[in-house]
Amino acid sequence: MVDLRVVTRDDWPLWRDVRRAAPAEAPHAFTSRLADWPRGGEERWRARLETPGAHHVVALLDGRAVGMAGGLPGDGGPPELRSVWVSPEARGHGVGDRLIAAVGTWALRAGATALRLAVSRYSRATPRRSPSTSGTVSSPRRSRGISSPTA
């Protein structure tokens, strides 16, 4: 069974490990390169998790991180869904839907009516509507209204 965990600054080693695994496995899906992340040490990782108003979630399977998603406050616009990744072993089991729903719920609770999907222009991932998020995901650079997750 996969558990979701909201991570805080004290969880920086967990976030670091999954954040490094993501571009190593799917470099085309991220704007930052794997080589960009080893620098900075503990304080850089903690700072990422301390972004005011941000929400970071990790999916755990038997204690191992198998996915992640982040929500960042919008700069004058809707909040952004970022850093979504699920390891190959966990794909096809609804992990991505659960991660997206968790960020969508965070956005709703923060008073948002839309959630922007931030993706690399080189990403081969196709934004899609997820049944569990009822329109949480939209195409790049566009926003759509969000509603409460049904699951």
From TrEMBL:
Domain N-acetyltransferase: start-end pairs: 16-151
Specify where the region named Disordered lies, as residue ranges. Answer: 122-151
The UniProt record lists the keyword Transferase: yes
Checking Gene3D superfamilies in the record gives: 3.40.630.30
Q: Which GO terms describe its molecular function?
A: acyltransferase activity, transferring groups other than amino-acyl groups
Keywords per UniProt: Acyltransferase, Transferase
Q: Which InterPro entries match?
A: Acyl_CoA_acyltransferase, Bact_Acetyltransf, GNAT_dom
Instruction: Extract the Pfam families matched here.
Output: Acetyltransf_1 (PF00583)
PROSITE patterns referenced in this protein's UniProt entry, alphabetically: GNAT (PS51186)
What SUPFAM superfamilies would the database entry show?
A: Acyl-CoA N-acyltransferases (Nat)
Q: What protein name is recorded for this chain?
A: GCN5-related N-acetyltransferase
